[in-house]
Design a protein that fits this description.
Length: 173
């Protein structure tokens, strides 16, 4: 089976998952910015990976636009973020980003990644600083808010190759 992994990464977490996925599947791996000219119809399986940023799975619209023309192909979406797995935010991201007509056809997989302040742009660092300040000023924070404040206090890396098991199993069929 000929497989393609296309990914959008800013701080490196999604890139790492995409590279591991491609290695494990013997797939071709292409960065989003180099996607032009790729003939998607030449592949049996295509996985797209993007980071979750402010509720948007970056680059996913490109993938969803092309999905309609890829009947009979095994398609998968994986996305990374700083939110621990199983969080309701993850379910909301799928509802918010994936068109309803594709939800039954393209499975979505969330891969816990982390935060890397050193590789973030200035705007993202400012937004995170505002979030930290807002959480610190909260009187009587809930346990969830306390955990969020702890997690956004600094950079961290939760990338784990084991999170790819389900994605790989699906793409292998």
């Amino acid at each position: 089976m000929k497989t393609l992994v296309v990914f959008y990464s800013k701080t490196g977490f999604t890139r790492q998952y995409a590279q591991w996925l491609a290695e494990d599947l013997g797939a071709e791996c292409v960065a989003y910015e180099k996607r032009k000219g790729i003939k998607l119809d030449r592949y049996d399986a295509i996985a797209f990976g993007g980071r979750l940023h402010a509720g948007v799975i970056c680059g996913a619209k490109w993938f969803f636009k092309r999905a309609a023309g890829l009947e009979g192909k095994r398609l998968a979406l994986f996305f990374t973020g700083a939110t621990p797995p199983g969080d309701k935010v993850v379910e909301a991201a799928v509802r918010q980003n994936m068109p309803p007509e594709l939800r039954g056809r393209i499975p979505a997989f969330y891969l816990w990644a982390g935060l890397n302040y050193e590789k973030m742009g200035a705007v993202d660092r400012i937004m995170m600083a505002m979030l930290r300040k807002m959480l610190a000023a909260k009187k009587g924070p809930s346990p969830e808010e306390q955990e969020m404040a702890r997690m956004v206090a600094g950079s961290y890396d939760k990338v784990d190759r084991g999170y790819l098991r389900e994605v790989e199993a699906y793409l292998r069929g």
